[in-house]
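Students often ask why inverse folding is considered easier than folding. One informal answer: many sequences map to the same fold, so there is more than one right answer. In these notes we will look at a single instance of the problem. The structure comes first.
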């Protein structure tokens, strides 16, 4: 089978249009003869992957800068969707031909992946299969953060940083489902206009205006005291600025550090303002609270089927174009999700 293999740590982006096994300089190669994974147990299921999502964590993992560092070589990739290809003798929940989605620690950047039946979710009618492959990590992160951890309620003010990215865009939509007043921060006219089209209550273009001044003006006009929940996948200077907007008793959701700069949250101010700081490493829930993840993804799939949330895919690539896909993540070109379509010959570099 075809599989994308990380053979050494380094930057997977390049100016090349495609990669191959002959690439000696790239940390990733496209193997066309990788062994097809076999069923590991009676309850194992093999899935022919339809689409797999790129997340910033995948990029960091290949760089060697992620908190989990798998031994080399490895096949990257986390969330995916596809069709059940083979089932073990003890499988009772699925059958060959079923549409499923899931996530894994590694391995989805390949034509086939094996998982236990308990780890797979049926994709409901009305939910596009490719879109389902973009749902678990990005929307799962935001759902667990906002619904499970912050317990966001109707009327609360939610401030989303990096709102046009994969997790940011999911947070914006989940915030609206919860009935929150949503403020989104992004960079550039195109991203701002897209966020406005989703019905976001207020959008700040951080490349042109002061986040603090813009948000304060909006809050004053709406007679709101401040931000109740800060959703932060960015870090750095933007986090520091945003803390000036937080209400007494506000909650800070630490999602990631796309800026490359880990912010300092002053404990003395957190004490005086009664802030709650939530660290949110979504993947660790699979070990410590798996039921929370399972319930979260099932609810999200039902929301997609009902049309409550939509999964925007801005770039789609083939496995051989993975370096370009990672470049779209690195250069922040995407509005929403970047995908790799495994069994689709139609490679669309961008819908933007």
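Output (designed amino acids):
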């Amino acid at each position: 089978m075809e599989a994308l293999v990380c053979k050494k740590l380094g930057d997977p982006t390049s100016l090349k249009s495609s990669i191959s096994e002959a690439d000696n300089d790239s940390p990733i190669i496209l193997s066309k003869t990788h062994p097809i994974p076999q069923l590991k147990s009676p309850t194992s299921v093999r899935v022919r992957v339809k689409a797999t999502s790129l997340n910033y964590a995948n990029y960091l993992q290949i760089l060697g800068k992620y908190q989990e560092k798998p031994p080399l070589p490895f096949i990257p990739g986390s969330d995916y969707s596809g069709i059940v290809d083979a089932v073990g003798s003890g499988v009772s929940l699925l059958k060959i031909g079923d549409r499923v989605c899931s996530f894994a620690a590694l391995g989805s950047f390949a034509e086939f992946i094996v998982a236990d039946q308990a780890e797979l979710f049926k994709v409901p009618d009305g939910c596009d299969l490719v879109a389902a492959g973009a749902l678990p990590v990005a929307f799962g992160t935001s759902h667990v953060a906002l619904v499970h951890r912050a317990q966001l309620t109707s009327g609360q003010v939610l401030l989303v940083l990096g709102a046009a990215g994969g997790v940011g865009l999911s947070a914006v939509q989940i915030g609206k489902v919860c009935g929150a007043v949503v403020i989104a921060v992004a960079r550039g006219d195109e991203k701002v206009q897209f966020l406005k089209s989703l019905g976001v209550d207020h959008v700040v273009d951080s490349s042109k205006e002061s986040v603090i001044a813009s948000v304060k003006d909006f809050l004053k006009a709406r007679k709101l005291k401040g931000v109740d929940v800060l959703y932060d996948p960015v870090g750095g200077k933007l986090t520091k600025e945003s803390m000036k907007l937080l209400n007494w008793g506000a909650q800070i959701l630490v999602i990631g550090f796309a800026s490359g700069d880990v912010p300092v949250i002053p404990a003395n101010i957190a004490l005086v303002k009664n802030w709650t700081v939530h660290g949110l490493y979504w993947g660790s829930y699979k070990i410590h609270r798996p039921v929370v993840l399972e319930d979260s993804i099932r609810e999200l799939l039902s929301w997609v089927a009902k049309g409550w949330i939509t999964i925007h895919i801005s770039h789609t690539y083939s496995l051989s174009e993975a370096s370009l896909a990672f470049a779209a993540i690195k250069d922040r070109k995407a509005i929403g999700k970047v995908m790799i379509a495994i069994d689709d010959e139609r490679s669309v570099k961008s819908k933007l």
